[in-house]
Amino acid sequence: MAEELPHRHATLDEVAALAGVSRSVASRVINNAPHVSRAKRESVEKAIRKLGYVPDPKARALATRQAGAAALVISRDDPEVLADPFFGQLVAGVAGALEEADLHMMLCVAATPRGRERVERLVRSRAVDGVMLAASHEDDPLARIAKEGPLPVVFGGRPVDFEPRWYVDIDNVGGARDATEHLLARGRTRVVTIGGPLDTEVARARQRGYREAMTLAGLTPRPPEIGDFSEAAGAAAMARLLEAHPDLDGVFAANDNMAAGALRALRGAGRSVPEDVAVVGFDDLAVAQLTEPALTTVHQPIRDLGREMARMLVGIVAGRAVGPLILPTHLVERSST
Amino acid sequence: MAEELPHRHATLDEVAALAGVSRSVASRVINNAPHVSRAKRESVEKAIRKLGYVPDPKARALATRQAGAAALVISRDDPEVLADPFFGQLVAGVAGALEEADLHMMLCVAATPRGRERVERLVRSRAVDGVMLAASHEDDPLARIAKEGPLPVVFGGRPVDFEPRWYVDIDNVGGARDATEHLLARGRTRVVTIGGPLDTEVARARQRGYREAMTLAGLTPRPPEIGDFSEAAGAAAMARLLEAHPDLDGVFAANDNMAAGALRALRGAGRSVPEDVAVVGFDDLAVAQLTEPALTTVHQPIRDLGREMARMLVGIVAGRAVGPLILPTHLVERSST
DNA sequence: AACGGATCTGGAAGCCCTTCCATTGTGGCC
DNA sequence: GGCCACAATGGAAGGGCTTCCAGATCCGTT
């Protein structure tokens, strides 16, 4: 049977008193430190159990100068950002890895100026041992905390305007190359692309991958139509592409949402997928399985991304030398190609 | 131009020294407390700016016995739970409301025994001022912290086995009634339902709503086919229903995923939606807009749920008297009815 | 039996704040 | 001009923990 949850919080002093030792010894027992005789160790452990003692992390943090927590900062202007399943998976990965290291997770949504200000205060107040920064966009004021602050900051995905010391990224170039090559391998030769906003590194990298694959195959990459990663933008971009290149037979969309929009636009234009036009997306979110036909797409290990970000941060805090990490993607073939 | 982020963290003592006042006065300035002359107040404020001082929340928490943070605990065996967009929105709502109150959010995923143990430690260690408990299932060991612990706990959704002192819930009964009545208003009379696992209060409540509506209309509620809220389970349940009630003309599914499965099963069985069979779901997640045809469903204000949970917790911590809250739903008509 | 060494032990200082309280200073009022 | 009330001030005592250090204990050696 579990202990009662005592209403009053026991302190280390009480434990020490009950065990008949000094506070120092009790502290050592708790921290598994040496220089404690077997007898006293057991006596302290007994007292701990009896009192249901749990050390106060605030006091401990104060004394050790270690917060015992890490912040995951979602930096994006849109407060809805968390509804994106991407972040759910990211958070799940981070949570798992932080649990391994027994760190707590402070989740910060820096969507408003007020939110950003709070994050900055959090960081500067040393309430956390490190920061994971996700969805950081161009000119993100929070990127400052990585450049100037003393705290380790791990980026999820590379920012567009500088190369941080620590980051974990998805191999966007490689994934986009694979996607494009897959279309080419299917015999498509007039392959176009729908790109994301070029102020994001993700969009740029996927663009680059498309161009590389085309060039390598001796084909001329066509200029992308740009969308904002939404389904509607994908449909609109597809419509423009159909206009510009009526003979197209393959489309690489920079994400699944836009690919879904493209499928809709193609259907509207009377082109059948994959017979007339093959389509590949990127992300492998749930939507990819719900489109008609189901979407061939590049799977990115989002959970792993979160996990590795957290592990990297833990490594840095522990003083281990770690460097950037790029995670591989793989193509998931469904019915759209 | 913003201040430099100083590498060494200034302390209140340093601020006081620079301002030429005692620590007490400096502290009062920071906390906007009275009994500080205008001159000293300004002098302290200047020193704060100059040093880039940010109070250490750990020390403050220790002195005030207020953690300045609240925990959002997602209690579910499945570590994938966060990938569910439901939780993304919930978290977003919580984050927004906690920001208003200037509390930090500790996000805890209690998926493993280890995770649960950590949550319990967190709570007992007084590292947070209160807890929001979401997705708590039957016999959730964490529910103990609400019953025995001294900390305020706000439930998101009612647990099945007891009535907590504080909770915020969605009006599941009302929503399900509306959904069913909508089907009846559309002239359907042989309306069946796909229910969720009966060890969840959500599933029970939606079941109840269906029965109420049927009974009120003078019809006999039919026993539900049960699924585990997944798309596949929805399809399977739909198949069983078609077998048992070949003449059915309306389906209320207890969530959108199962409704999507039902649509698939109906299509497979050659029934057209909404002509032969009308279908209503529950949740209004993204999937509802992606199905073919788009799903009529009961919208639940998940973000509001999170927001109200956080506000309730803030209220309790502030000593305000607050009670349970039930949030209204509304029907979103699309093409499946 | 005396000694060097390693192993325990507890006192005390410190981490950075808040807050109580006694003290000083100020203005108003009779 | 003296007295009272009240605002302003800083000293000091916490809050709960870690950790340094000096002193006490114990062991095996010679």
Task: Give a brief outline of the structure.
The structure is a homodimer of 337-residue chains. Chain A has 13 helices and twelve strands. With 337 residues, the first copy, chain A, is of the alpha/beta class.
Could you describe the 3D structure shown?
Two copies of one chain form a homodimer. By secondary structure, the first copy, chain A, is an alpha/beta fold. Chain A has helices spanning about 10-20, 25-30, 40-50, 55-65, 85-100, 115-125, 145, 170-185, 200-215, 230-245, 255-270, 285-290, 300-315; strands at about 70-75, 105-110, 130-135, 155, 165-170, 190-195, 225, 250-255, 280-285, 295-300, 325, 330. In chain A, the strands form two sheets. Chain A has a six-stranded parallel beta sheet, sandwiched between helices. In chain A, strand 9 (about 280-285), helix 12 and strand 10 (about 295-300) form a beta-alpha-beta unit. Chain A is elongated, with a radius of gyration of 26 Å. Chain A binds a DNA duplex (30 and 30 nucleotides) through helix 1, helix 2 and helix 4.
